[in-house]
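Section 5.1 Outputs to date
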Amino acid sequence: MQNQVCKGFIFAKDFAKGIFIALFPITHSFMLLKDKIYLHELREQFLQQIVNEWPSKWQKEFDEFSSFEALKSKNAFLEALLADIEDVLHQQLNGETKNELFSKDFLRRFVFEYGTKEVRIQTRFRNVISVYLGYTDWDDFRQKNNDLDRQNIHINYVNIEESLFPALRKMQAIPLSDEPYTTFQAVKPRFTVSRFVFGFFLLIALSVLCYFSFDWWQSRPFSSEELKEVQFKVIKTVGQYPQAVRIFYDVSSLPRVQKVEVGLGVGQVFNAQKAKAFFTDSEQLVDTVAQTYFYPGIYQLVLKVNGQAIKKYHHVVYSKPSAWSSWGYGVAYEKAWATNISTTKDYISNGVLHFDPQAFPNEIKGEFDYRQSIHALTQDFGIPFDSLTIEARLKNPESEGGESCYNMELNAFDKNFNALAVRIVQEGCTDFAQLTVGASVFRRQTPHTGKNVDLDRFGINHNEWNVLKIKILEKRFWVFVNDKEAYQGYFKTKDSSAELVDLRFSFKGAGSIDWVKVSNSYTGKVVYQTDF
């Protein structure tokens, strides 16, 4: 009896061992995938902390931050970073850091080669990075970021050239299944030429009919009832400039989903006549997309399913309070470029905000190449779009960096992405003047010709100071140039009027702003004013 019990115990032990060996590769692979997600999050927070501390720790030696790939001396930066890590650990570990630190070679792979090569991160290295980020150790990092366990995270960097983390690859778990076989027996009919020809054409006709019927069924618009449970939102933001975000969507409630795309609100400019928006696509019904925004403003995110735009979300990247941000951008040799974002201290002189023409690249050689500057303020102004008055004193002479028709443009957006765009130009260039209020386009360049309206009063002398004023009152608006009415009319909006959050001025060239005032059209109350 005792021998039988022992044999039974040995059999049960061997059986359990066999089950463990069979399941270990699947369980181990899943744990490795989860581990990679945490390691991506660890690296994301590590790089974001470097960017956040750049002005105080690194800018003096390595200039303004644009991207890690743009660093001129990567080796010198790694040495400085390693010294900073050692200093932080020396303070937090009571001086016991010699056995904890990693090599500069590992740091190079972790910062610059992660994703393109296999970078092994030992437990003690994970602990060092976690402590540097302010955690107790790696376990403390995982515990405080355990929301990753509840998210179906699919890391998908689309705008690679502008991303803080340029080499991340897509990850997804693929389920395995073992479907039973089904066997059919073919019954061969009598063969005749007439039957063959008839059957052949009948098969083609049925195939075409099925193709178009199926295509229509799959691509037909979704009903409002079907869209009720769809989710689309930003669930996490890190930093300010640049700001890394995670965009979440859930379309699992929708039937017949074949393709999901997310428009990220950014794009690539090829030349003055050609631009392309960035969309990322996925086969997942529930997913999280990561994206980095480098400039303040309001970004319109779009969720598309089977080519249909079903949801929109407006994400605001705010300026520092009451601080204007300035940068230059343009196209040269059909290649888009943009300068680093700068604070107002760089460009304010004698009470005037003026972009330095020396900051522009000097490579303009074609008719579609141009240089432009932008001055933007993104904040909650506390005033709705339909009771808005904006006034500003501007000029853009060639002697101070103006170009071509010396375009000066005012743009304003509310939280529902209702837009105001007024472009005034040099005398004789009024064919290029533009005017858009809400959803009403009065004139825009080809291919959007707009209405045939007279904007001759939008042509002025840009060598002198000019006062531009736009007043919106309910459904009417007025445009004044130097206290003279240049245009007035009625407008419509696609969405209801919401609070103004973005105000910006753009110039063909450098441009100058003397003062800006924003007020309530109904009460006359000034909600924002600056003379720099």
